[in-house]
Each structure stands twice: as C-alpha cells, then as structure tokens.
Design goal:
Number of strands: 9
Shape: globular
Number of helices: 11
Largest sheet: 7 strands, mixed
Amino acid sequence: WLSSRLPHYMVPDRLLAVTEIPLNRHGKLDLVRLQYTLPSADQPPHDPLNTECEFLIADLFAEILGISVTSRTADFFEMGGNSLKALRLLTQLRETFSDLTPALLYAHSRVGELANILKQGSRTFYSVYPGTDCSTVDIFLFPSIDSLYAPVNSRIAKALTGHHLVCFDFSAEGFIDRCTAVVKARQHHDRATLFLGYSGGGNFAWEVASRLGEQAPQALVMLDSWVMAEKPSAEEYLRWIGQHYANIDGLPDQTALHAYIEALPSGLGEETIPSRIVLISSADHEPPDGIMHRHWGGKTRGEFTVVPGVGNHFEMCRPEFLDNNIHLARRIIDGLSPT
C-alpha cells in the first residue's frame, strides 16, 4: 500500500509496534532511547545479570538513563549516556568503589565489563590503548583539569586511534612520581615517545619529562599550556568555567579541584628538557600582567615551535574543534621516528 503512494526510498523496510514513544525532557522524541528499545541485529546479545555488582550497576544505569537495564552487555553511552550523566554515575559508584576513575568508566562502559573491573578492586590510574602494528610512536596523554568532569582525554584518545597510547587519569597521591614510573616501565626502544597534554596536562607532561633526563620523549605537544607565576585557585577556575559553559552542573567536587591545582606544576623552574616542544596555541591573548604566559622556549634544549590552533582555550577540546587541533598534533606525531 505504501509503495503505491511513496517514492521507493521513503518506503520503510519494516514496521514495528511500540507500547510507548520515549520523550526527552523537552517533550520531543528521544531517538537514542527509541532506537535502543527496538529489536536490532546490531544490538549485542542479551546476557542476563548474574552478580550483585552487575545488578547494582544496572540499577544505576536505569536510574540515570530512565530506561530498563537487564543485560550484562548494556552499554551506558549507547543507551544515551553523556558526559554529565557519566559524572552522576561516577559520583554514585564512588560511594562504593572509591578507586573508580573517569578513564576506567569510559573504557569499560558495559555493565559486565565495569563490574569485572570494580570487583578486581583495580587501583590503575591509567588506561592503555594498544594501537596498530604499524604504529611507531608511544603517546603518553596527561590530564587537564577539565578531565575531572568531562571526557576530554577520551575524546583525544579516540581522535588518535591507531597509535599506542597511555592515558593518565589524575590521582592525588604522588601523581607525578607515579606517571614517571609508568613511562619508564612502558617505553619501547623500538618506538619513538611523545608526551601530549591539554592545558594543565602539558604542565604535568613537562614536569615528568624533566625527571626522565635523557629518557625524556623526543617531542612534547602542548595544547595551550601556560607557565604560571601564580596558579589559579579552585574558585577562580570555577568562575572561568561558568563564563564559558552554559551548564556547569557537572563540575567536580572541591576536593578534586584543590588536589589537582596543588599538584599542578607551574613551569617556573629553571630546568630544561632535551625534548622538542610544540605549543598548539588557542586564540586567547596572554594577560598583560605576565602572571601567565606561553613562553616555553626557555624550557627546552631542543626546538620550540608555536602552531596556531582553533578556538579559545576552553573550546580547543570540544568535539567541534578537536579534530582540527589533533590534526596539527598528528603532523608532529607522524614526523617522529624511533632513535
């Protein structure tokens, strides 16, 4: 009947009856939830929940997403989860599993996988993306303060798919020393090494490089990292965020902010590193009082290059700007070779 009245490309392949049309908070059709409730050959097979931990996680998924969750293969993000909802999930899970980090949540977002990680009591503060056999560069990605509440490092890691990558998640206890130890243990002599960090992540990357001596990476790529004569307070950071984001409900707690800022290297030391430093700068101008600047040239015994990036400081790792900025980083990565 429809084929006699519609063009062929508008005729549906099948018709499915549903008991309810899911709506979002604005009263409009919620396509993500609708698609997930429909039978599909692309959905993972149903695998019933069978442990207390899995039922706990499934209940939290259901509470936050507003849909029923009954399978171990249910994926938080495929069912409509986003960064703000992930922060709610992370906060609630940490009441029972204090070691859970954003990196682990984003790397293991299915009920069964996440339950297995939590049951192991893992204290891992980094995630490993193995890359492909043809990759010749090891990338160590350091966390910005934004990564405390948003999937910044996860976005960068996905944009660098194919490379061997270690993604650090901030932890308050001896973070720089622990990162240094991980780099030493995971460096491969048959591959080049590159450090990458957005904002404060670049400061952490430089500090770790300074502790490695001649084992420092061949290159350090900073996405708008700043040398700071005076570090911002948690309150100042919250104010900046409020000026650039319409919804700030997903901000980290004050304890996490204070711990990050306390551990954050200012970059003021006189040490230098042998690594080449490439600064991908934002469109923001440096303040005239000189409290913050991006003059990293005096921090390296190698080459220092500034490459104009896209967006202001807070926009650089948003999805609409990230690809262009990571493309600039890829040009540096692709130019490295094992020594």
